Amino acid sequence: MIGQDSISSPAPMSAESVLETSTVTKTVRDDGVKMINTFEVVKKLGKGSFGKVKLCRNTHDGQLYAIKVMDKNILRRKRQGMTNMLENVKKEIAIMKKLK
């Protein structure tokens, strides 16, 4: 388990730290640890109408990342005025990729 001190200071975000994937594989290891693709789920950070945010550890480099998991089908169905919510999420991803 991770101590509070090790997660209290966020790492600076860069274009390399923002990744979009269209395929999510959720599994549970024999030791009970939940996995999302190659990331160990450490804890849930939050939940909203369109998805969840989880604190995860990359099994390749040990680094901690916040992962936002959203269901594109739900985003397509929910509308905000005339704007498709999926388009808003794509804009959010584009903005995060530009942050340094």
TrEMBL record:
Keywords: ATP-binding, Kinase, Nucleotide-binding, Serine/threonine-protein kinase, Transferase. GO terms for molecular function: ATP binding; protein serine/threonine kinase activity. InterPro entries: Kinase-like_dom_sf, Prot_kinase_dom, Protein_kinase_ATP_BS. Pfam families: Pkinase. PROSITE patterns: PROTEIN_KINASE_ATP, PROTEIN_KINASE_DOM. Residues 39-100 form the Protein kinase domain. ATP binds at K68. SUPFAM superfamilies: Protein kinase-like (PK-like). GO terms for biological process: signal transduction. This is Protein kinase domain-containing protein. It comes from Hanusia phi.
